[in-house]
């Protein structure tokens, strides 16, 4: 696979993942029931909405993706795993998938088409 194709697919993975993540936070923050931002649900909403937006932009991709990967691991083990042993039975597939996609992004970064890359080009 060519390097350019890898960068394009990494960028698409980053943008689509962030865009799919943001509505989860939006629903927590701006849904029918207001949440206390200092609660676990409020903190999750802030991380999901604003973290997802940063991922879409490719800004601070590695640290944000690492943080979101950890958030999804915690969400899985606290909320989903106690319901049943397998993700298919405990509705935890999305949490596991987001966790591992964000882990990949934390290792590989935002790719060529990211604000992170623009900043690095200006500095170097």
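^ Assign residues to that structure.
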């Amino acid at each position: 696979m060519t390097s350019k194709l890898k960068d394009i697919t990494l960028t698409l993975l980053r943008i689509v993942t962030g865009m799919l993540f943001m509505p989860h936070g939006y629903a927590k923050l701006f849904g029918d029931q207001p949440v206390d931002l200092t609660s676990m649900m409020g903190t999750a909403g802030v991380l999901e909405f604003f973290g997802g937006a940063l991922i879409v932009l490719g800004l601070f991709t590695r640290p944000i993706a690492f943080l979101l990967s950890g958030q999804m691991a915690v969400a899985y083990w606290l909320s989903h795993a106690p319901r049943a042993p397998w993700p298919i039975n405990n509705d935890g597939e999305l949490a596991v998938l987001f966790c591992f996609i964000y882990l990949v992004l934390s290792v590989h970064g935002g790719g060529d088409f990211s604000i992170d890359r623009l900043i690095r080009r200006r500095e170097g």
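The CA atoms of residues 117 and 123 lie 10 Å apart.
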